[in-house]
Amino acid sequence: MEAAQTAKPAFDWKRLVFLLTGVALFAFVNFCPQWPDAIDPNGEHFILTPEGKGAIAVFLLAGTWWVFEVVPIGVTSLMIGILQVMFLIRPAKVAFKDFMDPSVLFIFASIMIGLVFTKTGLTKRLAYKMLDIVGERTSMIYLGVFVVTAALTHIMAHTAVAATIYPLLLAIYALYGEGDKPTKFGKGLFIGMAYVAGAGSIVTLLGAARGAVALGFYKEIINVDVGFFELTYYMAPIGWGMTFLLWAFFMICLKPEKERIPGLREKARELNAKMGSLTRDEILAAVIVGSVICIMSLRAFVPALKAVDKTAIILCSSVLFFVFKILDLKDLEDIPWNIILLFAGAMSIGFCLWETGAAKWMAVNWLVMFADANWFIFVMSIAFFVMIMTNFIMNVAAIAISLPVALVIAPYLGVAPEVILYASLVVAGMPFLLLVGAAPNAIAYDSGQFTTGEFFGWGIPASLLLMIVTAIFVLVVWPIMGMPITL
């Protein structure tokens, strides 16, 4: 008995192997001799500087540690900043400044909205009302959650949607009857929400910043304006198609253990009735959040609002929650700082790859391999590159590094620029492999229902599904809809 109490847990050799693998990849790339230049079809040379090589080395270490979770994901992000400074890749003032990029603060404010919805009880009301509508079948609960998530991303940023839906999912899962224990239903519910938030966000310019950035590059290079509703016309079929396909995917791969939750509808009605009428805090929270969403949505249509960054607008809600005493100092302790740090590090490595020229070097090297390929292979190679890059760095950066290069190569192969633009935007919105690919992925991870390895594992077939759907739209659907494919 005494020996059992004093026994130490077995040493985690697997963790040590992956930890050292990340270190070895960093050391090998950072200290190896200079790599050859990348050369585009116009003959322009892109030199990989020592700093650029260092950026790729940090990128490899971070990717390895994130996938295998050898240390908490937020701690890996700290290592990204440390390595940039210690190995003189970028100055400390630059490397660590990215940790407080506006995008990181946007995620912080989005999470605060989720906290407020949970604390005031609005989340439970929404969950009970939704369960009353969709009923007791777990397949319909999946579908109801996915449809609501996708629809909301048409009018607000997918990060804010995920932060708002997340506590609602916690309330729904609490009624599943398994406590906090990870289950197939829990994995499908939270991973599915993250995936579908991406699928829905491609449909309008309001779902994420990547759309506006891509259209800006497109206008600059091709000198053609793409309108708000033109984008939606081509993106709505594939966005909603992926939403329903992902529902089928999770019903097959992560089919809930229980087909029904008996008495759920009655229980949801009973719990909703017990909550009584709306409280002062619930009304205030709904008004504040609704106003912020409305103002952010209007930025796409009101020129005067375009000059005001969406981060400043959404942070106003965080301040107002404290002004009206909906939140207090103690609530700050409930912020998942591990997730905030994860995205802080992701922004830092993204900017590092961009500013050192490493990202451009990788993009040119990848795309010129397909410079003599069939037009379809070339378009899909661009889509594949953007999909992989958007899992490691912010999707805005993935678009920024690949789209200009692809649009330069396209005329040589007789490929129309429109198909490159839309194919890139589709895959940039759906990073299914790594948590750092999109904020909804990281927010879903906070549920504790899955590991980073599980997320990566399910992301492989989901990414394959995405590539197949994109290929069908490039070959068949978009040409039928009137999109130019070849010149």
From TrEMBL:
Transmembrane segments: 16-36, 56-83, 104-123, 143-176, 188-213, 233-254, 283-305, 339-357, 363-385, 392-413, 419-443, 455-481
CDD domains according to UniProt: SLC13_permease
Record has Cell cycle as a keyword: no
InterPro entries: Arsenical_pump_ArsB (IPR000802), CitT-rel (IPR030676), SLC13A/DASS (IPR001898)
Subcellular location: Cell membrane
Topology relative to the membrane: Multi-pass membrane protein
Origin superkingdom: Bacteria
UniProt keyword terms in alphabetical order: Cell membrane, Membrane, Transmembrane, Transmembrane helix
Family: Belongs to the SLC13A/DASS transporter (TC 2.A.47) family. DIT1 subfamily.
Protein name: Transporter
Source organism: Pseudodesulfovibrio portus
